[in-house]
Amino acid sequence: MSTENLLEQARALLIRTMTFYRDDPRTSTWLRGRVERLDQPLRIAVSGRVKAGKSTLINALVGEELAPTDAEERTQVNTFYQYGPEPKILVHTPHGAVQNVPVSTLDAGTIRDLQHWRPDEVVRLVIEAPSPGLQAISLIETPGLASSAVQETGRSALAQVLSEADAVLYLTRHPHQTDLQFLQSVHELQIARSAPINTIVAFSRADEVGSGGPEALQSAERIAERYRNDPTLRAFAQHVIPVVGLLGQAAATMTDAELTALTGLAQLSEADLDALLLSADRFANSTGPESIPPATRQHLVARFGHFGVERALTLIRAGSGDAKQLRSALLEESGLNALQEAVHQQFVERQQALRARSALLAVDMVLRANPRPGVHQLRGEFERLVANAHEWEELRLLSALDSGQVRFTRPLQAEAKRLLGAFGTDPRNRLGRDENALAVDLAEEATAALSRWREQAVNPLHDRTHREAVRTVVRSCERLVAQRPS
Question: Residues of the signal sequence (predicted)?
Answer without folding.
Answer: none
